[in-house]
Design goal:
CATH architecture of the largest domain: 4-Layer Sandwich
Oligomer: single chain
CATH superfamily of the largest domain: Aminohydrolase, N-terminal nucleophile (Ntn) domain
Helix content: 25-40%
Shape: globular
Radius of gyration: 22 Å
Number of helices: 17
Structural class: alpha+beta
Strand content: 15-25%
Mean pLDDT: 90
Strand order of the largest sheet: 3-2-4-1-10-9-11
Number of strands: 23
CATH class of the largest domain: Alpha Beta
Distance between the termini: 41 Å
Length: 475
């Protein structure tokens, strides 16, 4: 359970050559990707070049019902998106996919990631007369593509040219009247996969979305690759192809669902390895190992298996409460923890407890969880974290925007241990976190732990840069 860090987004697309209900399949795919974004969602359906769409704030099952899906109509192509903001405030205008009306035809686009030069590009477009209706960087990408469409012979060529201009992290699904296009940035920060369902092709942020609709995984989209799907099938454009992906390592630690396979490695297995490495690096004598739901559970099982200490169910999670970091301020985040998790006292009372979690950001939520276990009668609490300390901002899609919000930037590990009320505290090392995905032929971005990024990072700019700009303009 991540504290204080905003979630990734999730993208989904489907091209059907048969009688597939693309709206329903997209709904189910987004439902499987709900963990990647709980702020807003949307679906666009393409029926012979006519785009029907709906998007709003809320969870997938809150925004869509049978009537809304029926109103989207029938079609053969659809794309969808679940969002948690990294650029742009939480409002309906920032919900995706974005739909663009253009002289070359309509286009819809959904994006997972974060551009590092979005502010500069937006300024450039505004000086040319562009009018922006949202404050997310996905609209910047849409302007870049539509500008290229005026000089390119095809939408895929426009996307390829746009990729030479935009910088940072992006996994895209783009829909034109006749085509579904998937594209991944040349560094490969964010996951993106291609699958097949009968005569239909599907693309999604994670393979769990394929499983939910009964689709077969084909392969991952390569860094810099563009996948084009149309009536002639699927083809690849490799003009911007990069090296091995530098995948965000936190996909394995927290973001991805455990039943997904990313770059050839099972997320579940990677988290088991995290627990195993934690035991090797920070052994302790204890009576029970428990994990904080949900992503701490697999690591706790790995720790228990490696150590021989019994694994226990320490918490009951209220599944009807949104994630703590969705709350707009710290007080509400803390209050939501109180109703989200309840300790099973019989598991921890009069015992030495090893508590496994995926991260500590601000420390307030960890402090509350430790207090809950202490109040339930635990004799000792030994906290183990399945990633290294956060000491640097992320510029590529995870909302760690300031060192001042990171407890590890102002306290030593012993000080953090005392702050959260634990008896001992141990973090997974950078060396071990880089070994979690044993079967992956890729590198990792671990800049939030090391300060070393696989791509240039921008100069410091206002956190809500687009909102700031609008306020200044209105004065």
């Amino acid at each position: 359970m991540l504290k204080g860090i905003h979630e990734e987004c999730g993208v989904f697309g489907i091209y059907s050559s048969g009688e597939t209900d693309v709206a329903m399949q997209t709904y189910v795919g987004l439902y499987a990707l709900q963990h990647r974004g709980q702020e807003s969602c949307g679906i666009v359906v393409n029926d012979s070049g006519v785009f029907s769409y709906y998007k709003d704030l809320g969870l997938v099952h809150e925004v869509f019902n049978k009537d809304r899906l029926h109103q989207l109509g029938e079609g053969n192509i659809a794309i969808g998106h679940v969002r948690y903001s990294t650029t742009g405030n939480s409002n309906r205008s920032n919900a995706q996919p974005l739909v663009v009306r253009h002289v070359k035809g309509p286009m819809a686009i959904a994006h997972n990631g974060n551009l590092t030069n979005a502010y500069e590009l937006r300024t450039e477009f505004e000086l040319k007369g562009a009018i922006f209706h949202s404050t997310n960087d996905t609209e910047v990408i849409s302007y870049a593509i539509t500008e290229q469409r005026l000089v390119c012979s095809s939408i895929e060529e426009a996307v390829a040219n746009t990729m030479k201009k935009i910088k940072g992290a992006y996994s895209l699904v783009v829909m034109s009247p006749q085509k579904l296009i998937a594209a991944r940035d040349p560094v490969g920060f964010r996951p993106l996969s291609v699958g097949r369902l009968g005569d239909s092709y599907v693309v999604a942020s994670e393979t769990c979305a394929f499983d939910s609709i009964g689709a077969e995984f084909i392969r991952d989209v390569r860094p810099g690759e563009i996948i084009v799907i149309d009536e002639n099938g699927m083809r690849s454009i490799e003009t911007n192809l990069g090296d091995k992906p530098h995948l965000c390592v936190f996909e394995y630690v927290y973001f991805a669902r455990p039943d997904s396979v990313i770059e050839g490695s099972s997320v579940h297995h990677a988290r088991l390895k995290a627990g195993e490495y934690l035991w090797k690096e920070h052994p302790v004598e204890a009576d029970v190992v428990i994990g904080v739901p949900d992503s701490g559970l697999d690591a706790a099982l790995g720790f228990a298996n490696a150590s021989g200490i019994p694994y226990g169910v320490g918490f009951i999670k209220n599944r009807y409460v949104g994630r703590t970091f969705i709350q707009p301020n710290q007080t509400e985040r803390t209050n939501s923890v109180k109703i989200k998790l309840n300790v099973i006292k019989e598991t921890v009372k009069d015992k030495r407890v090893v508590l496994i979690d995926d991260s500590i950001v601000r420390g307030t939520t960890s402090q509350r969880i430790v207090n809950l276990i202490r109040e339930a009668g635990a004799k000792e609490i030994h906290v183990r974290i399945s990633c290294p300390p956060f000491i640097n901002p992320c510029y590529f899609g995870t909302d760690i925007d300031s060192k001042e919000n990171l407890i590890a930037c102002r306290m030593t590990i012993p000080e953090i241990c005392r702050e959260i009320g634990a008896d001992t505290l141990g973090y997974l090392s950078v060396e071990s976190v880089n070994k979690l995905a044993e079967n992956s032929d890729c590198y990792f971005c671990n800049g939030c732990f090391t300060g070393e990024y696989p791509a240039p990072v921008p100069k410091e700019i206002p956190k809500d840069k687009f909102e700031f700009k609008i306020k200044k303009t209105d004065r």
